[in-house]
Specification:
Rossmann fold; about 170 residues; 5-stranded parallel beta sheet; alpha/beta; 7 helices
């Protein structure tokens, strides 16, 4: 799988129900480029059972394939509605460990910037969402991960159009 390096890969990351997918789409429109949907949502919609640990590896591989596919037609930026850090955090949370292939990919794939989505918008119930009362905890897990790994990030706050404006402002110097 070829890794296209001339585009700036921006990851939207954060707890469930914080507007990440909408923001990724809006940023792609604003910057006239591509965005990468969250493969897990597509995968789980078609699964006729609860997901298992092995599913996370399949999701990870497909997520990267989707990312590389969208990168071929991206212009300057590629907005990713998740990356493998999210799968690592979920795997650690649910199974107490993460597959070594996922960890290796995290170590070797580089992203230019992370937009950490704050929990300042209301929870929207969804069959795939699991932890409505743990959003602050998960926000802090993501924040701690970004900081401890010295990854460049900014926090996206606000409601409706404020979130998009906040993200665009954070990306001005990227």
């Amino acid at each position: 799988m070829e890794y296209k390096t001339e585009i700036k890969r921006i990851v939207i990351i954060g707890p469930e129900s914080t507007g990440k997918s909408k923001l990724a789409q809006e940023l792609a429109v604003s910057y006239y480029t591509e965005w990468v949907p969250e493969f897990a949502r597509f995968y789980l919609d078609r699964l006729d059972r609860d997901y298992q640990e092995a599913d996370l590896l399949e999701i990870a591989k497909a997520q990267l394939a989707w990312e590389e596919d969208r990168a071929t037609s991206a212009e300057k930026y590629l907005f990713c509605d998740t990356n493998l850090i999210v799968l690592k955090i979920w795997s650690d949370e649910k199974y107490g460990k993460t597959d070594s292939w996922i960890l290796d990919q995290i170590a070797h794939r580089k992203y230019h910037f992370y937009l950490l989505s704050d929990i300042d918008i209301p929870w929207k119930d969804d069959p795939q969402r699991e932890h409505p009362h743990r959003r602050k905890e998960f926000f802090n897990i993501y924040l701690n991960y970004l900081e401890s790994n010295q990854l460049p990030y900014g926090i996206v706050k606000g409601i409706e159009d404020q979130r998009l404006a906040c993200a665009i402002k954070l990306l001005q110097n990227i």
